[in-house]
Design goal:
alpha+beta, nine-stranded mixed sheet, two-stranded antiparallel ribbon, about 30% helix, about 25% strand, globular
Length: about 350
């Protein structure tokens, strides 16, 4: 979970020295206070140094090739990180309309905006290639208990290589909303929830930029999948769980990548940017030799065949829950035998 020390460090980086986090946290959890939580959120945003945030060299480099409100294919790790910075600024800029997909009170809207902003600021960036994303979401999720430490990081921003059409359902009213999402913000929400918000931009009726941040999923730690979730919840949560299982797979690499050297050199000339941000690109590892049979059973076989990829739920007592692990497709049978059926697996 996010510790007070981590939050204090984040506020310090954003020049929120006078922000009373303990009071905000107390009000957020309904523990009283002489101000509304909306008032506290507005004061927090008022203390932000927007000019400093907008001057980030990495963000400026990104904006030179794409406007704020225009979808742009994200193909490089630095572009995914710059996209996260762009959304951080849009969330901080109060002149930009904030769309949650349904009507709420002004205090609820500004508070939700602060919550999304905080987690976007803390988030570790992941870039998902389109073909990897499709593979990750293609398999059914088995029955399992959702553990607490399901996320690789407390807050993550998943950037899609290309914009995706997301359909979000309001669980209270049943109303549906469509959003062209550039990515997803996923974070652990104490004391026992994991939230996912689809993120994107668009234009309103007046032609001005709108920041879309719509909650698409809530996972509850300690619950059983799919028993404890409605059919509507399963439709949105299943792809999320599938992607998380993909990240836990030994066949998948999400290693940290550096910014290109020219960009790092440019960033070192200013103190406004991090020259070593944590950026991860999700990709399949190189395939090792196919699973062939060296035992007696395999020697009696005359063919090889493909075992379909699947998601395995592995119980971890220390976690009091299951960890989903994606098992990629592999060949079964003697390595020198003919393959019964040939399947093409696009890896990159």
């Amino acid at each position: 979970m996010v510790t007070k020390q981590q939050m204090d460090a984040a506020w310090e980086q954003m020049n929120l020295h006078a922000f009373d986090y303990e009071r905000w946290a107390a009000e957020a959890f309904g523990l009283g206070g002489d101000r509304t939580i909306g008032t506290v959120a507005r004061e927090a945003f008022a203390k932000l140094d927007l000019n400093r945030m907008k001057a980030d060299p990495l963000l400026q480099r990104f904006l030179r090739q794409t406007p704020w409100d225009t979808p742009f294919p994200i193909r490089a790790a630095w572009e995914a990180e710059a996209e996260r910075l762009m959304y951080t600024v849009l969330l901080a800029e109060q002149k930009v309309e904030f769309n949650m997909g349904f009507d709420v009170s002004p205090d609820q809207r500004i508070t939700s905006r602060l919550l999304v902003f905080t987690n976007m600021t803390l988030a570790v960036t992941y870039l998902w290639r389109t073909e990897i994303l499709k593979k990750a979401e293609s398999l059914p999720v088995p029955r399992h208990t959702i553990p607490e430490n399901l996320l690789p990081f407390t807050s993550m921003y998943w950037s899609w290589e290309g914009a995706r059409d997301d359909r979000v359902t309001n669980t209270e009213t049943g109303e549906q909303f469509n959003i062209e999402a550039d990515g997803m913000l996923v974070w652990y929400m104490p004391p026992g929830g994991i939230q996912a918000w689809s993120v994107g931009t668009g234009l309103n009726a007046d032609g001005k930029t709108v920041m879309h941040a719509i909650q698409t999923a809530i996972l509850r730690v300690g619950t059983t999948w799919p028993d404890d979730y409605s059919e509507g919840e399963q439709n949105t949560l299943s792809p999320l769980l599938a992607k998380l299982s993909f990240l836990n797979s030994p066949f998948v690499s999400a290693e940290r990548e550096q910014l290109p050297r020219p960009i790092r050199r440019a960033l070192k000339k200013t103190t406004a940017a991090d020259t070593e941000p944590p950026i991860h690109v999700v990709k399949l590892r190189q395939t090792s030799t196919p699973h062939g049979g060296a035992g007696a059973t395999d020697r009696e076989l005359r063919h090889q065949w493909w075992v379909r990829g699947h998601i395995r739920a592995q119980w971890f007592p220390s976690m009091k829950g299951h960890r989903l692990i994606w098992i990629r497709e592999y060949l079964k049978g003697p390595s020198d035998a003919p393959i019964i059926r040939k399947i093409y697996d696009v890896q990159r």
